[in-house]
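Exercise 3.2. Students should predict the tertiary structure of the chain below and write it as structure tokens, then compare their answer with the key that follows.

Predict this chain's 3D structure.
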Amino acid sequence: MSDLGWNPLHGVHSYPAERYAVIADRIGGILRSRNDIVLVQAEAVVALEAAAVSLGRAGLSALNIITGPYGGWFGQWLRRGGAAVADIVAEPGLPIEIETVAKALQTGPKIDVLALVHAESASGLLNPLPEILALARARGIVTVVDAVASVGGHPLDVDGLGIDIAVIGPQKALCGPAGVSALSVSGRAWDLMLSDGAPRDSILSLADLKTWSMAAGVACREHRRRWNSSRWRRRSTASRLKAWRMSSPAMRWRHRRHGRGLPHSEPRPGCRQ
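Answer key:
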């Protein structure tokens, strides 16, 4: 799977890295993240399972917050990989209480991964994401956030909040199509996933999809360099054009007349008397 030409959809050519880079750059802008952006050619639930499969293994300890079905499934997927998972379940239709999360972190074993859903579309609840992530950051815990229902509808600053893995899909608040999804993955999350026998040869393997993100990362940096260069050229051209226009006698007269309030009786340069 080290071949960059591999594609999980058999018979379909790999998406060009330079075009991937443009999409990844725009998704990173939506998420306010400079982390790697990984595209998944499937519904967001597949991307969410891919994160669990790539993380779940023996020796991993996770705290899983359940406020709906997707949180419950994420814990099951982690357990299937051999991880030790502690679930904390909120009251039906209500967000998790921050005091419950703090108590679980203080009294339980050392936690490697904390997972939660930001917003539940079925009930409309919104979990206290900044406060939960602050608790996780203070303990060096890798965080996984299902932001499918919240991205585009609620503020989401991935880098500002310190989210290690954010899973999104375009079909809810972004009003996009179903059937595609994306993840932002931090360096810490990659280190944890790749440290001990990450799964391979699967659509659920983020390690396999990382080859695309690496190629796209190079193309993305080149795209940004070219775009910034072209923007500089456009600005330079506009500045030169403005200077040229202002150098004409007619524009100097207009600038003096309107800028300094000169009387309308002043003749315009080049006009007949």
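Discussion points: The longest strand covers residues 61-66. The first helix runs from residue 17 to 31.
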